[in-house]
Amino acid sequence: MSNLQPSTVLPGLRFKQRFPLLSLIVERLLLSLVLLFAVSILIFGGLEALPGDFATTYLGQSATPQAVANIRAELGLNRPVTTRYVEWLGNAVQGDFGTSWASKNSVSEQIGKRLGNSLFLAAFAAVISVPLAVGLGMLAVHFRNRLPDKIINVISLAAISLPEFFIGYLLILFFAVKFGVATFPATVYDGMGFVDRLKAIALPTATLVLVVLAHMMRMTRAAILSVMSSAYMETAELKGLSAFRAIVKHAAPNALAPIINVVALNLAYLIVGVVVVEVVFVYPGMGQYMVDAVTVRDMPVVQACGLIFAAVYILLNMVADILAIVANPRLRHPR
Known about the structure:
Blueprint: H1 6-9, H2 11-18, H3 20-49, H4 54-59, H5 65-75, H6 81-93, H7 107-142, H8 147-161, H9 164-178, H10 194-200, H11 202-227, H12 231-238, H13 243-254, H14 256-281, H15 286-295, H16 299-327, H17 329-332
Helix pairs in contact: 2-3, 3-16, 7-8, 7-11, 7-13, 7-14, 8-11, 9-11, 9-14, 11-13, 11-14, 12-13, 14-15, 14-16, 15-16
């Protein structure tokens, strides 16, 4: 038998036993870092594997081979892929995404302006959609299998079935073209007043709300219904507590973990889902910036946008996991 003591053989197990909650959080953090590293490789390698290059697109089809070679040498494209990846990742960790090949401007500075616009749009949509989804979910549970519940389910199913761009074009057609009560395109600029900015993003915000509201509402309804048959819910009803108060006071808090998880996941989708919405409404955010860069094969911009979208998505998923751990006693104290 081995002479090694258990304390030296299984230090990780001892840490898990002493700090179960902290060990789960550390695992999620490490997993997120590994996933982000893998995504960075996919982004850089995937863009490198695309046919054609920026030099040919920039100079045109009539460019001479020597001119193309000069541009590639100037941009460092003649260096090994691994060297360029390590240099790009090292600079990206420090917040330096290089210089745009097309505009010669700092990518980090441009992203700083665009990211603020995207986050403002996503945050405003979240402020509206999250409380509305939770409220409608509890309302659907209160009137389950009755007319209000059926109406909410039909509308939510229709909203889930329609893609973002189709909802966006419908809103533009009715509210901007026919009725003229909303602005299009959704133009915002530095120094714009808060109220004017809200008016400008009304239609893209409504599109995002309709896209994520239905899913959050249906998952909230399902989570609350799963605890409605519990013994403590029957006890609450026997004590004379009204059905809706029982849902708000007992069912919703005990369904908090899955509700938090689905809300956080949909917030992550809001961040990356703005790409399509920004293009439809010509909104000057990260999504529009990335699409414009793709058309001219401006790789530093595309790589930076892709990495930031992936980092935000992974971060919010990690937050969802951690909040679910904290909110769920069975995860806080695993056996």
